[in-house]
Amino acid sequence: MIGIGVIGYGYWGPNLVRNFMERSDATVRHLSDLDAGRLAVAKARYPTIVTSTDYTEMLSDPKVDAVVIATPVATHYPLAKAILESGRHVLIEKPMTDRSETAEELIALAARKGKVIMVDHTFIYSGPVRKMKEIIDSGELGELYYVDSVRVNLGLFQQDVNVLWDLGAHDIAIMNWLIGSEPLAVSAIGAAHFKDGAEDIAYMTALYPNNCIAHLHTNWLAPVKVRMTLIGGSRRMIVYDDMEPSEKIKVYDKGMSVTTREDIYRILVQYRAGDMHAPRLDQTEPLSAECAHFLDCIRTGATPITGGELGLSVVRILDAAQRSLKEQGRLVPLRGSAEA
Amino acid sequence: MIGIGVIGYGYWGPNLVRNFMERSDATVRHLSDLDAGRLAVAKARYPTIVTSTDYTEMLSDPKVDAVVIATPVATHYPLAKAILESGRHVLIEKPMTDRSETAEELIALAARKGKVIMVDHTFIYSGPVRKMKEIIDSGELGELYYVDSVRVNLGLFQQDVNVLWDLGAHDIAIMNWLIGSEPLAVSAIGAAHFKDGAEDIAYMTALYPNNCIAHLHTNWLAPVKVRMTLIGGSRRMIVYDDMEPSEKIKVYDKGMSVTTREDIYRILVQYRAGDMHAPRLDQTEPLSAECAHFLDCIRTGATPITGGELGLSVVRILDAAQRSLKEQGRLVPLRGSAEA
Amino acid sequence: MIGIGVIGYGYWGPNLVRNFMERSDATVRHLSDLDAGRLAVAKARYPTIVTSTDYTEMLSDPKVDAVVIATPVATHYPLAKAILESGRHVLIEKPMTDRSETAEELIALAARKGKVIMVDHTFIYSGPVRKMKEIIDSGELGELYYVDSVRVNLGLFQQDVNVLWDLGAHDIAIMNWLIGSEPLAVSAIGAAHFKDGAEDIAYMTALYPNNCIAHLHTNWLAPVKVRMTLIGGSRRMIVYDDMEPSEKIKVYDKGMSVTTREDIYRILVQYRAGDMHAPRLDQTEPLSAECAHFLDCIRTGATPITGGELGLSVVRILDAAQRSLKEQGRLVPLRGSAEA
Amino acid sequence: MIGIGVIGYGYWGPNLVRNFMERSDATVRHLSDLDAGRLAVAKARYPTIVTSTDYTEMLSDPKVDAVVIATPVATHYPLAKAILESGRHVLIEKPMTDRSETAEELIALAARKGKVIMVDHTFIYSGPVRKMKEIIDSGELGELYYVDSVRVNLGLFQQDVNVLWDLGAHDIAIMNWLIGSEPLAVSAIGAAHFKDGAEDIAYMTALYPNNCIAHLHTNWLAPVKVRMTLIGGSRRMIVYDDMEPSEKIKVYDKGMSVTTREDIYRILVQYRAGDMHAPRLDQTEPLSAECAHFLDCIRTGATPITGGELGLSVVRILDAAQRSLKEQGRLVPLRGSAEA
Questions:
Q1: Which end of chain A, N or C, is surrounded by fewer C-beta atoms within 10 Å?
Q2: Which one has a higher pLDDT value, B184 or A156?
Q3: What is the pTM of this model?
């Protein structure tokens, strides 16, 4: 039975607590939040959990083996540092930290302490993303040409980061994982419409090795939620629509080859040229699979799929994108980037 | 009865011929195409039209008042020049020409000859785009924050331009017209996956006055047709999905204001926060409205909505985007741009 | 603090337990299921609940004020009877019982005991259905012409009733409530494809007063979930698509009146003739609203919206439909039906 | 070159004229309509066609080999009779006639005269319906359980028949052709909301051999166009959504077999249990394929796919449904029905 502490009971914290509480091989022993009202909500539902507005209390409970951080980004580094130094495993909400130097420091600290450091890039554990990884790794798509992601919704509520750090962290992790490498350079451009100056719309392009181009549209001023990714290869292409209730992943054949002018005209009025296939997807809650993986890594010492390295890479890309944003689209090479 | 000549009977030419033939105030007298097979197809359907592989024949028929150009982009300038010099009105398929200097020259020539020059930016005449223009001009959206367009499909068949010149010309015309001004600067980035080196994927960002940001995703390697535009304002937002059979235009209220942490969490799991309204749209074929407008301008001497100025602005933006593409996203200011 | 007992922890029971456990004015004290494995699952999550394979144990706990029945239909009557006789309020999963005589008997018993009897017709408490009720009651639709419901999915797993009793009970409750009356007669026809003889496809038509026709398609052999209701009135019409993530309720204007032959041809190629409006919907979990209402009725003695009368009416309609099914569509008048 | 006469230039006539005019092996020589205004519209577009308000004129032109009837249903029988008696082939808009006796008489007359009689059941020639036929005939679906069709739209404009005769004729032809037999009996129920008494909503159930049940929802009072057919077999199932721009045909695997209670609960919250496949469809205009087939049958003497037999069967089913409608759902056996 692995003892868990959770810091932060805002939007995402309740999902983390629920998932660890539903398991038979772990339990949440401590919960901390600065807002006593939020703690009362949790207590009513989970009377056995010890709550406190002071997170350091859980660090003095020897039965707490691992701590989960679900707080604003700016606090990730100091909290994770304290947790690791106390000799505990740590699971950090995305993005890992707010600049790459601190992420690097945490990875080194975890290694020194022999503890698991994992970042909560939940989508990597979802049925659709795992199915796409399986399809890409099988070579079914052929050569990978592009990955295009749109992640937009009403959301001008995040206080300490811009929209790219908030929404984009998801897609950057997905892109890195699916493509299997890191970008060589990024370009980003955006706009801020409110007084605090943080971008509420941002576009990022990442140039990956082998002429694979990735692009990301993040937007907090959109009327509806859109989460759509197009992945193009030389043989097949994927449309991943996470808002679609039934068919989130569709795989399209490129269709017949075009040889005559009449072929071209025919293609131009069609919606698609080849067959489509929508595979059945694992419906397991992604966070549930992620929590199981975290506990596994604690028990076996394995490196998490979404460990420090992936978390750092996402922060490094966001760092570079931030610099490009300031220079309105200038291409920024990635320091130390390398194919995975 | 206005006499029309048409040059080019490829993908779009047949639609132009059909629309002019169905009118009672105009008729197509001449049709020219380099491919005799295409001319035979047209002749079977419209036995009264004189066909020729030499377009200059129509310029010696005094009953031809106006000529429509539906040929590859590189030929637009010499053809339009010859037509205007022969003292005829001209309607040019988009984009107007392949560089801004020649577009400027054609505008000057048309003015000197006192003839109508119009560019076939068909979408400007469509029910959905006209409805959006009406909504924006009414002030219903509030301050305009962004316009985001996606126009992707299988289409690696265009030989003489890249994907931005081909697909992007549509959206750039729409953006300029809806926003009512020209961008101050553009940034573009893309990738070419085939040997001829023309980009098959390209992203363009255009910075318009008043902090309005516009973005465009064009892609010839996409498995399905997507034509979607999001327009965000301070009060309301529009989703325009041209592939949607029934509800192409949806107008969303921003919804309730958010004051507490719980409000935020509630919003984050929702798809939208306010009411949505999908106005009935005029179903007239856009090209039919456009042809009527062209004939009107010929009769009255009025300046077309999609006249030389809009056509030139689109080419000027494409020119700048082309330079930015070569420098991988560097922001390129627009020469001579000004608010309309 | 109202003490709750729950009988049955299969598909629906866990949702009932969770909702009562999350409230501050009630708590689940006892849970009973014949399957000890299911009880262990519940116990891990809610350690404070007393579990037993014998439901009579909870009836000897004086702190249990009300019992919720979430068991197969055939057991509803004996369980509800025992609960009411023990002087407790009862909430029964739909359908209330498997024939109208026993439903009538339970209503009389609850009245005699002065206890609340409520049926778990959850959809009545959902945002979309409540919004439709509000629209219909406002007279916005005009005269009501028809209600057409489709509720189909893979589901050949229910053992003790046919598809109409299983899936149809939802829509019959919704129809009665929205129309505000009971049908005068019903016709039903269906087919059974497996050995036990219960219909896995069934169609039911119900003739309501004022020439309002209602129809229901239930099907356990459908490849995808469909839950769609069309409601037609003389002025406006509603499409309710419960699988649609964002716009479950769409209200359509009838559109312009048709006077000429050309108008007709124009209408025939269109998807719709008038504006559409999709109101924002309350996102509260329906079962949460229902549990709150049950507790309210217990405290105030009010009659539940989905009380015995509605539950009985649904069973009475299902009874009549069952007779019609046996006679392959013959119209069966409803005994004792009357406008609500 | 086969000479064609067309009677009726209302909603559908223009499509017939256009399709025959675009062919190289046929031409429309005569067009007749009672409305001179409609003839003028046609004349402007096709100056070579002889028009007349008296259809008998075309019967004296020896170059007219075949006549197409696109007039109201009540006129089909007398017109077709006159055409066949004049020794010409005939293509009749659906439904063939307004009662089965006259349809039988026309078949006998065509046989006697050795002429082709064909009914314009256009959908039989469409890509999606032909693909479904191919799938069903391959045995891929397994045993056929049901066919369920919805065909609804705003359409209270047809004067001489009710909604079932108008819209239902399409689906009945499709059902017969796909199932490969005729129903043994039908039940129908509906409602009329306007003074002329014709049903504007009607539901029909048809019991086919081998326990295959077919159902049809036709409705002229629906806010949006819906054309959806579900076809269920023991192994696979088809969803045919004719309003879907890109994926009209989806084939679903039944998915994994269910063995435990937990399996069942898992299935119940899912949208589907197996893979889905959307085959590429032939995009040829159905009416174009149909016209080609009509001309082929004229040349070769072959019996049309949608010949008199299918046309008669549709009328016979509509006749029986009409009787059932009058008796509010009573099952009516089909006279003379037999497996095809």
A1: N
A2: B184
A3: 0.91
What pLDDT is stored for residue A160 in this prediction?
77
Distance (Å, whole) CA B30 – CA B48: 9
Of the segments A16-25, A244-253, B61-70, which one has the largest average pLDDT value?
B61-70
Of A24, A44, A246, the CB nearest to C24: A44
Q: Which helix (H) or strand (E) holds A93?
A: strand A89-93
Question: Is B57 near chain A, with CB under 8 Å?
Answer: no
Query: Which domains, from first to last, does chain A contain?
Result: 2-123+286-305 (3.40.50.720), 124-282+316-333 (3.30.360.10)
Q: What value does the mean pLDDT take over residues D21-43?
A: 93
Chain D closest CA to C187's CA: distance in Å? 7
Contact of C22 with chain A, judged by CB distance below 8 Å, is answered with yes
Give the pLDDT of residue C47: 83
CB-CB under 8 Å, A277 with D269: no
| Alpha-carbon radius of gyration of chain A | 21
Name which of A164-178, A262-276, B23-37, C84-98 the model is least confident about. Answer: A262-276
Option in D193, D200, D223 nearest C237 (CB): D223
Nearest-CA distance from D112 to chain B in Å? 36
Binary contact (B283, C274; C-beta < 8 A): no
Q: By C-alpha distance, which of D82, D39, D75 is closest to D59? A: D82
Structure tokens at B271: 């798809």
**Closest residue in chain C to residue B268, using alpha carbons only:** C283
pLDDT at A256: 57
For the beta sheet containing A26-32, the strands, ordered from the edge strand earlier in sequence to the opposite edge, are A50-52, A26-32, A2-7, A66-69, A89-93, A117-120
Nearest-CB residue to C45 (from A21, A225, A246): A21
**Which of D11, D191, D211 is nearest residue C213 as measured by Cβ atoms?**
D191
Residue in A with minimal Cα distance to D285: A266
Element (H, E) at A238: strand A236-241
- Taking alpha carbons only, the member of B31, B12, B30, B23 closest to residue B71 is B12
- Spatial distance between the Cα atoms of D94 and D91, rounded to a whole number of angstroms: 9
Task: With a cut of 80, say whether residue C338 has pLDDT above it.
Answer: no
Distance from CA of D45 to the nearest CA of B (A): 6
Chain B contacts of C263, Cβ < 8 Å? none
User: Is 70 exceeded by the pLDDT of residue C271?
Assistant: no
* A284: exposed, middle or buried (Cβ count in 10 Å: 0-12, 13-18, 19+): middle
Tokens read off for A82: 């304290």
Q: Which of B202-211, B236-245, C95-104, D111-120 has the lowest mean pLDDT?
A: B236-245
* C22 vs A22, A45, A245: nearest CB: A45
pLDDT at residue D339 is higher than 60:
no
Model confidence at A336, pLDDT cuts 50, 70, 90, reads low
In angstroms, the separation between the Cα of residue A155 and the nearest Cα of chain D is 28
Q: Which chains touch A (3 or more CB pairs under 8 A)?
A: B, C, D
How far apart (Å, rounded) are the C-alpha atoms in residues B331 and B205?
A: 9
Q: What is the mean pLDDT of residues D251-264?
A: 72
Q: Does A259 contact B at CB distance below 8 Å?
A: no
Contact D226, D242 (CB under 8 A): no
pLDDT greater than 70 at residue D33: yes
pLDDT at residue number B47: 83
User: Which residue in this structure is represented by tokens 């009607």?
Assistant: D202
Q: Prior bond to A95 cis, omega within 30? A: yes
> Nearest 5 degrees, angle CA C2-CA C7-CA C8?
135
Look at the block and give the residue holding tokens 């785009």. Answer: B129
Q: In this complex, do B280 and C255 lie within 8 Å of one another by their Cβ atoms? A: yes
The whole-number pLDDT of residue C339 equals 38
Gap from C243 CA to chain A (nearest CA, Å): 7
What residues of chain A lie within 8 A of the CB of D247, using their CB? 276
